[in-house]
């Protein structure tokens, strides 16, 4: 331990006595935005491979949608959606009107005695080559359906247009083993 301390002190003293020409200038880059180099994955993505962190207000909106579903107040969520939404759920997808989507979500929620969704992660992403934001969210849903406990992992991706309205969403689920 003493040798390590002595070696550290000697290195420090030697660096302090370095000639001016050997000293490195330090620049404060805390306000500079990191630049991302475009990356070629070797495949063509159907949506995008060029993302930056998006506006967190869109993530807040998706959290509110999850809360409305849990609280069985999804009818109060219509302002979050564009006039039509391309909705994709396991085993079903369709382009539907906002009112149809709200009605279907309410019907799904009505089939549950109770539900609580916990959040694992959320990230809003701005597709640099598109005029929309994508919000990816992961969580776990604990529901009681006719008194029976059901747990599932959920991953959803929500497309939000430049007006802040949901224009598409995809849901992926997996039953959690008992």
Describe the structure.
By secondary structure, the chain is an alpha+beta fold. It has a single domain, classed as Nuclear Transport Factor 2, Chain: A, CATH 3.10.450.50. Helices cover 24% and strands 39% of the residues. Residues 1-35 have low confidence and may be disordered.
Based on DSSP secondary structure assignment, what is the total number of beta strands? 7
Query: Could you say which overall geometry the principal axes of the C-alpha atoms support?
Result: globular
Radius of gyration: 25 Å
Proportion in helices:
10-25%
Order of helices and strands: HEHEEHEEEE
Low-confidence stretches: 1-35
Notable characteristics:
39% strand, 3 helices, alpha+beta, Nuclear Transport Factor 2, Chain: A, seven-stranded mixed beta sheet
List the SSEs and their pairings:
Elements (H helix, E strand, L loop, with lengths): L1 H15 L34 E3 L2 H15 L10 E9 L2 E6 H13 L3 E14 L4 E14 L2 E14 L4 E10 L3
Parallel strand pairs: 2-7
Antiparallel strand pairs: 1-4, 2-3, 4-5, 5-6, 6-7
Question: What's this model, at a glance?
Answer:
The chain has 178 residues and is α+β, with helices and mostly antiparallel strands. Helix content is 24%, strand content 39%.
């Amino acid at each position: 331990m003493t040798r390590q301390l002595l070696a550290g002190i000697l290195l420090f003293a030697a660096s302090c006595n370095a000639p001016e020409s050997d000293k490195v200038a330090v620049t404060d880059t805390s306000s500079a935005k990191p630049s991302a180099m475009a990356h070629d994955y070797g495949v063509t993505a159907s949506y995008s491979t060029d993302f930056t962190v998006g506006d967190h207000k869109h993530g807040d909106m998706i959290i509110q949608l999850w809360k409305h579903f849990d609280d069985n107040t999804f009818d109060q969520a219509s302002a979050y959606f564009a006039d039509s939404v391309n909705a994709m759920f396991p085993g079903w997808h369709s382009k539907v009107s906002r009112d149809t989507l709200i009605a279907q979500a309410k019907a799904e929620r009505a089939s549950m005695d109770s539900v609580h969704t916990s959040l694992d992660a959320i990230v809003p992403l701005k597709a640099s080559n598109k005029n929309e934001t994508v919000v990816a969210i992961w969580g776990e849903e604990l529901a009681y359906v006719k008194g029976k406990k059901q747990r599932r992992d959920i991953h959803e991706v929500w497309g939000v247009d430049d007006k802040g309205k949901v224009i598409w969403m995809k849901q992926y689920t997996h039953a959690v083993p008992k």
